[in-house]
Structure to design on (172 residues):
């Protein structure tokens, strides 16, 4: 487990805004990182399903034309066929593409809030309308409730990346 520094609440509005900007940025980037990870898994599983089903289809077609197919080959083709079916079922069950899109959307929403917070921080009069702190807090709370969870290992990896590469940005 990562040792985190003791929490110190903000003492003024500027420090509060900076903390919210940092948290929004970490959340934005960790959702994008999670989306990238899930998309990669979806592609890998998709390639596996495609390769296995192509092999099974070819093997079954070839066995129709062959006079005598060995029992070992029939068992092997049967096992590959089962592996293809299981892989396709996993692809459907795990919903990597759908989950990746939800993380991408959450990352984009956190990015929008982060940009609004940055505008408030630099004193943009249009961004500082009425009760901007309450409205921003409500938006951050709603985002936290509606967004899919990012596993701690992905979140901590994102934090490490951000601390070593402060210019990393994906303003989507």
């Amino acid at each position: 487990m990562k040792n985190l520094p003791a929490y110190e609440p903000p003492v003024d509005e500027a420090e509060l805004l900076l903390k919210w900007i940092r948290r929004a940025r970490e959340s934005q980037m960790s959702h994008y990182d999670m989306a990238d990870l899930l998309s990669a898994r979806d592609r890998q599983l998709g390639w596996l399903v495609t390769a296995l089903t192509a092999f099974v289809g070819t093997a079954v077609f070839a066995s129709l034309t062959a006079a005598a197919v060995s029992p070992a080959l029939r068992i092997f083709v049967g096992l590959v066929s089962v592996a293809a079916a299981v892989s396709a079922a996993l692809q459907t069950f795990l919903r990597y593409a759908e989950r990746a899109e939800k993380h991408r959307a959450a990352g984009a929403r956190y990015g929008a809030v982060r940009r609004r917070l940055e505008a408030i921080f630099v004193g943009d009069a249009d961004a500082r309308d009425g009760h901007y702190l309450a409205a921003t807090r409500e938006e951050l709370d709603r985002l936290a409730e509606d967004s899919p969870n990012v596993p701690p290992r992905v979140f901590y990896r994102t934090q490490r990346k951000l601390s070593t590469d402060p210019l990393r940005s994906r303003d989507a």
